[in-house]
TrEMBL record:
Residues 1-10 have a biased composition (Polar residues). Pfam families: Med31. This is Mediator of RNA polymerase II transcription subunit 31. Component of the Mediator complex, a coactivator involved in the regulated transcription of nearly all RNA polymerase II-dependent genes. Mediator functions as a bridge to convey information from gene-specific regulatory proteins to the basal RNA polymerase II transcription machinery. Mediator is recruited to promoters by direct interactions with regulatory proteins and serves as a scaffold for the assembly of a functional preinitiation complex with RNA polymerase II and the general transcription factors. It is found in: Nucleus. Belongs to the Mediator complex subunit 31 family. It comes from Neonectria punicea. Residues 1-24 are annotated as: Disordered. Transmembrane segments: none annotated. Keywords: Activator, Nucleus, Transcription, Transcription regulation.
Length: 124
């Protein structure tokens, strides 16, 4: 169950960091989650997560669902590459995609689509 799987993770979206916020290895929860969610823009990293069987673990899938708060203000403005980051986060909500990302062909297709989107965006 998603509730049991996410007991250690508060289901509230973290606020941007403040001086009084607890630190984990010197970083705020906000900073850690920002770094992780931005790493999802990398198709090779998604493949790595799948190869480590993380995308099959209910707790990890629940965490990915929790990270959907990055789609909304004010969090959206902190993303460096919002297009691929949010697109991949959305795709990761689908069990089929979590299985397919193991395929090098799917990874390559994502890389090519992301590069094309980047080129098209710069042309506009």
């Amino acid at each position: 169950m998603a509730t049991e799987a996410s007991q250690d993770v508060s289901m509230e979206s973290p606020a941007p960091p403040t001086d009084s916020e607890p630190k984990y290895g010197g970083f705020s929860r906000f900073e850690i989650e920002l770094e992780f969610v931005q790493s999802l823009a990398n198709p090779y990293y998604l493949n790595h997560l799948a190869s480590q069987k993380l995308l099959n673990q209910p707790a990890f899938v629940a965490y990915l669902a929790y990270l959907q708060y990055w789609n909304k203000p004010p969090y959206l403005r902190y993303l460096t590459y919002p297009g691929p980051t949010l697109r991949h986060l959305e795709l990761l909500q689908q069990e089929t995609f979590r299985q397919q990302i193991m395929s090098p062909d799917v990874v390559q297709r994502l890389v090519e689509e992301d590069m094309k989107a980047s080129v098209d965006w710069h042309r506009e």
